[in-house]
Write a structure and sequence with these properties.
The chain contains eleven helices and seven strands. By secondary structure, the protein is of the alpha/beta class.
Length: 275
């Protein structure tokens, strides 16, 4: 199906207004967080560092679905790299911000859709070579069903690039505020993705640097980890962002830590399955 037909057909299919697979917790904290970061998200240390890691696994000559694209940070980056990218999210609030950012940078929005995962997977089975699912399934109540929907979207031989918050024992106030149902342990995530039919080719931790401050905040102080420095444009906090970007670029993106706040998975779809 070519781009024009994809765009034309997407207007006709129904949106999952009541979708048990994609049902979310209150996302107001998440919207607030990303609206603050959105204006400078291309320079945000975490977003920029994770983009670099993810991009090293993307085949730029094949199409990509940015699933749960949010404020279109990764979508914008892929457009700049001339990658054929389609983006979906269920949040009107996030997409409004994302589309403004794309327009501001001179990129089209005709392949950015408000769609629920379940209906989209039914209408576009085996359509995408690569699916990015970055910090998404922790917001979904039925994550097992969601992973199966993602499997349907990918062509045989295609791959999934997925990130989630790691270390379930660090689940705390920040997670609740941004609408997380859970954080993941490595074995749990591996099992859920494998059981959906994927062959996992890589699973690794990322963001070792954040483990200790998060442990202190959640377990000892029982409060949220402050990320105010990510929103600030003050010189000291901009300097801190640059230091952190350097750390992630030179260390965490190259040397896999034994533990971290994020789990990153690369998985391959080898054949079609009927659920």
């Amino acid at each position: 199906m070519n781009e024009h037909r994809l765009f034309k057909h997407s207007k006709k299919i129904g949106i999952d207004e009541v979708n048990l697979i994609y049902m979310k917790r209150d996302q107001s904290g998440l919207y607030s967080h990303w609206k603050k970061i959105a204006t400078q998200q291309q320079n945000d240390f975490r977003a920029a560092s994770l983009r670099s890691l993810i991009f090293s696994y993307i085949d730029t000559k094949k199409n990509v679905l940015d699933l749960g694209c949010g404020t279109c940070d990764m979508t914008l980056f892929l457009f700049k790299q001339k990658v054929d990218v389609t983006s979906i999210d269920f949040s009107i609030e996030m997409l409004e911000v994302g589309k403004k950012i794309l327009r501001r940078n001179g990129y089209p929005i005709n392949k950015v859709y408000r769609q629920g995962l379940e209906s989209f997977s039914k209408n576009y089975p085996s359509h995408f070579d690569q699916v990015l699912c970055l910090d998404v399934i922790e917001h979904i109540k039925n994550d097992i069903a969601a992973i199966k929907c993602i499997y349907k979207l990918i062509k045989p031989g295609g791959k999934l690039l997925l990130t989630v918050p790691a270390l379930s024992y660090l689940y705390g106030p920040k997670d609740k505020n941004v609408g997380h149902y859970r954080r993941y342990n490595r074995q749990e995530l591996y099992a859920k993705i494998s059981n959906a039919g994927f062959k996992i080719t890589k699973v690794r931790y990322w963001n070792l640097l954040g483990v200790l401050p998060t442990f202190i905040a959640v377990k000892l102080l029982q409060k949220r980890v402050s990320e105010n420095f990510r929103y600030s444009e003050s010189i000291p906090k901009i300097a801190l962002q640059r230091i952190l970007r350097t750390w992630f670029s030179l260390v965490e993106n190259k040397i896999e830590p034994l533990i971290g706040l994020t789990l990153f998975v690369v998985a391959k779809k080898e054949r079609e399955l009927i659920y």
